Amino acid sequence: MQKKILIIATLDTKWREVSYIKELIEKEGHKAIIMDVGTFGVTSIKADIPNDKVAEAGMSSLQELIFCRRDLAMKTMAEGAAKIIKELYEKGEFDGVIAIGGNQGTMIATTAMKVLPIGVPKIMVSTVASGNIRPYIGNKDIAMIFSVADMVGDINIITRVILSNATGAILGMCKVGTKMSKANKKVIGITAFGSTHKAVIKAIELLKDKGYETIVFHSSGAGGSAMEELIDEGVISGVLDLTPHELVAEIFPEASDVYAPVKQGRLEAAGRKGIPQVIAPGGLDYFVYGPLDTVPPKYRNRKIHFHNPYNINIRVSKSEAKIVGKVMAERLNKAKGPVVVLIPLRGWTEWNKEGGELYDPEANKAFIESLKRHITSRVQIVEMDCHINDPIFAEKAVSILCNLMEKYTN
């Protein structure tokens, strides 16, 4: 079956590479659709979606963009591309998208890709793909390929290989890949860290036995944000938020070098949708940094867990824990559906237990007291004399969630 591949690029600088990709796609019997997101120059090939149409979709014109600030011009083209790509996809006009670009082209193309659902094939060949790519990817399934060589001038022995491999990848995705469909079972979103792994695994087993499908999200910032988005989209029916770590990173961005949330508003989507949620304080006990030299001096005298050579955990202080408890309460108070906060009194992560590097019962207590002080009566708090990774904790969490699911969902 013929596949339709959308190619996004700035044709004023990347027309040779686009021509090469188009040729490869058509050689395999498929259709290439070209979108030009460049703002300057005359191109040597014709775009199916020319840049003036992209600018118009972004509520501007090419003439206006030529004379406005560069970043604003890029933003306009990105918004226009996103609007067009969404409309095209909803009409079934393409099966997958591949883009090439430098810093600006990558920003424009990935902004457009982010409006597509998870599961739609998306590949970005970029000169900046070996750097910090989180701003480009966000919490979507965009595959980034480092171009190795800059894409300037003629196709060469490096770009020929990279672009042909990327083209093969997008065709393979479109031929073999499966679109995300509605689950036959009710879906439970679960959040995880390595430090809450035992609780997560036990919960998965118990929920599977009760007939639920589970999706686990690593609390990496992108993972929690992805879960929130899927909740808003109606994919997830209930939440077992065992590891809402991103809340700490969101409240104290200056103290979290790693795992900051892609989007603000952790712990809010389930409340907006009114779906059942059981929440534990897993991961609220520490900040996450890279290697030791990335940790600010003011934090180096705290309790530290050296997770691996590239990852260090810094204990949250008593005063910081109070703030986290207050913010969590404020967000959960707005929930339209049932909420239970389940608190293990003997520790919230593998390192936060008696004898562990991050054990600090006073800081834990400060969080609990703050949470109770600010929470409303409609949010239930249940305390358990156990550690988060004890089997009894997962059993209780699943039992509460299943009761809520039976009572509040169809």
Question: Layout of helices and strands, plus pairs?
Answer:
Layout: E1 4-9, H1 11-27, E2 31-36, H2 51-57, H3 62-67, H4 70-90, E3 96-101, H5 103-113, E4 122-126, H6 134-137, E5 143-146, H7 157-176, E6 187-192, H8 197-209, E7 213-218, H9 222-232, E8 238-241, H10 246-251, H11 269-273, E9 277-279, E10 286-289, E11 304-308, E12 311-315, H12 318-332, E13 339-344, H13 361-374, E14 380-384, H14 391-408
Parallel strand pairs: 1-2, 1-3, 3-4, 4-5, 6-7, 6-8, 8-9, 9-13, 13-14
Antiparallel strand pairs: 10-12, 11-12
Structure notes:
The chain is α/β, with parallel strands linked by helices and 410 residues long. It has 14 helices and 14 strands. It has helices at 11-27, 51-57, 62-67, 70-90, 103-113, 134-137, 157-176, 197-209, 222-232, 246-251, 269-273, 318-332, 361-374, 391-408; strands spanning 4-9, 31-36, 96-101, 122-126, 143-146, 187-192, 213-218, 238-241, 277-279, 286-289, 304-308, 311-315, 339-344, 380-384. A six-stranded parallel beta sheet has the order 7-6-8-9-13-14, with helices on both faces. A five-stranded parallel beta sheet has the order 2-1-3-4-5, sandwiched between helices. A three-stranded antiparallel beta sheet has the order 10-12-11, with no helix packed on it. The chain starts with a strand and ends with a helix. The model has no long low-confidence stretch (mean pLDDT 94).
